Amino acid sequence: MAINLSRRMMLTGAAGASVISLSACATKPVAVAAAFPPGVADPFLLGPKEGVALLSRNENPYGPAPSAIKMIEYAARKGAFYTSSEASDLLVTMIAEKNNVSPEQVVVTTGSGEVLSAIALIYGVKGPIVAPRLFWDTTALYAVKLGMASITRVPLAADMSVDLAAIEAATTPETGLVQLCNPNNPTGLVSDAATLKAAVIRMAQKTTVLVDEAYIELADDPAGNTCVPLINQGHDVIVTRTFSKIYGMAGVRVGYSISSAETAEKIRNTAMSWAPSLSTAAALGSYNDETFLSFSKSKIIEARQMVNATIDTLGLKRLPSQTNFVYFQSGKDANEVQKAMNAKMISVRGQYMDYAGWTRVSMGRIEDVERFCKALPEVIGA
Ligand SMILES: Cc1ncc(COP(=O)(O)O)c(C=O)c1O
User: Fold this and answer.
1) Taking a C-beta distance cutoff of 8 angstroms, is the pair 307, 108 a contact?
2) Which of 60, 112, 115, 117 to mutate to test the pocket of ligand 1 (most atoms within 8 A of CB)?
3) Distance from the CA of 214 to the center of ligand 1, in angstroms?
4) How confident is the model at residue 272 (pLDDT cuts 50, 70, 90)?
5) Domain architecture of the chain: domains with CATH
6) Which of 107, 134, 212 for mutating ligand 1's site (highest number of atoms within 8 Å of CB)?
7) What's the rounded mean pLDDT across residues 55-61?
8) Cα–Cα distance list, 358 to 161, 323, 333 (Å)
9) Helices then strands (H, E): number in the chain?
10) pTM of this prediction?
């Protein structure tokens, strides 16, 4: 007898259901046992379902780069074997070279989620994780759920930027970790570079400061805004990055941290696994693919300009994003906006905390973003 799994079960699992709004658009059951191989029977087993504009998860549908896919194909044929240390070391060396650090300072993991989870476990037991009220809190919450951390959330400034002065005031030598996200998610805002670096340096005298730079390559000036240089100046700073965003490899799962060699060793000892060979190969293939990276960024900026123009024309307030998502005040309840968009097979993010009037929309394929822009006036009743 065929086993039927709903696509919601397959794509969200038990834990992910709260953030993935695909479920409302996914009704058709997938016959798993009846089809072999299942992917041939259902081309939408992975990725957005047919007709769905997936604009809720900050993915980049223009990836993976052809250079990454070529390496994935090669690696698939070597899938019988564990990731080789040669491949892992090569990726670490490439990351180290590009960031002017030594290979001992780099830890590569299965998505940056893994390295961020390890960091939350290491520092969460020491004291509270001090963070802005809105940030990508999934991995800090992972440690909280295990009883190994608590989060001290510091209110945002009036303009929704990270209130660095308030975070600094909340930081003491008993703080386990200061966790910042630059650019921040869900606001998309970049902190002023000089203010951020000065504050990070002062806070790092009291405790370890983590800067999650998942979206930094999408910022207007990545080199001017990254906190990586502070590490080699001897400050107690960790920076994390991912291949899930500009590289368009969210499902491939590669991320990394840069820190002092001593901190990197602690992180390495706490990470739960190692990057699979297919993921490592994909990262090797595309890490320095500047043609793809600039193509990717240009598509995201093109989409963002369309979204910004639509929001501005409607006279709504939006934050000036430097990422692949825009956070805007629709004047309607965010969960209602999500529901109305879902009815049109458009998936946007629902409400964050008590920010009821704010909706986050991710950039996606231009044609999908066009659908969002067309739907928005009707959805908000403009
Ligand atoms: C700010 C930020 N950091 C980290 C991640 C985790 O990314 P990944 O585990 O795919 O590297 C996300 C995912 O959306 C994010 O928004």
Assistant:
1) no
2) 112
3) 6
4) very high
5) 1-50 (no CATH), 66-286 (3.40.640.10)
6) 212
7) 98
8) 15, 17, 7
9) 15, 14
10) 0.92
